Amino acid sequence: MRTQDARSEEMRARLMAASIEVLRECGFAGFRTEAVAQEAGVSRGALVHHYPHKRDLILAVHKHLYQLAVDNSVESAAAVTDQGAIINEMLKDAQSFFLGNHFFSVLDIVLSANTDPELKTEILQASRNARLPIETAWVNRMSEFMPRPLAETVVYMTYNIVRGYAMRTLWEDDPARYAEMIVHWKSMVRDLLRNNGVTWPAE
């Protein structure tokens, strides 16, 4: 027999999945708690029991999406042991978030929260709290093969390049051009490493 805690956890998981789907389909502007309850197949009272206000649900969704990214990134960084593969794996990790299914939902929440100063503060703090462990995980791993300041630069460059392309897809999505850019980016990284006395194995 399931405990009350187990039932509550199951309900929250259903509400999160439904909230993500409604946010993806309708955006922040069209996000309605009634739609979430309908998508989850529960009463609005059940939703309100766990999330009394819409802002509570929005903040929970934002944190949930970022936590998924944190868990994935930390696991990916920890799994890499091959020096020659680490840059590609970091790139894949950045792409999985910024070019994945949830980035624009997160971005929509961040931008739309500007109309609610209190929510905006909580959202931005949650964003910082989430991104820091991700970048730190990759910096820590790369620091095993290069000086830490150099690792920080490579990670910073990588995430900003992928994030920038993700934003550009809002008006122009050119995968071929992006692939070409990544080739040049890898060459730049190798030059940066070589100029700082770091030997890097060929792919």
From TrEMBL:
Top-rank taxon, per record: Bacteria
Pfam families referenced in this protein's UniProt entry, alphabetically: TetR_N
UniProt KW keywords: DNA-binding, Transcription, Transcription regulation
DNA-binding region: 32-51
GO molecular function (one): DNA-binding transcription factor activity
Residues covered by the HTH tetR-type domain: 9-69
Matches recorded under InterPro entries: Homeodomain-like_sf (IPR009057), HTH-type_TetR-like_transc_reg (IPR050109), HTH_TetR (IPR001647)
Protein's UniProt name: Transcriptional regulator, TetR family
Organism from which the protein derives: Marinovum algicola
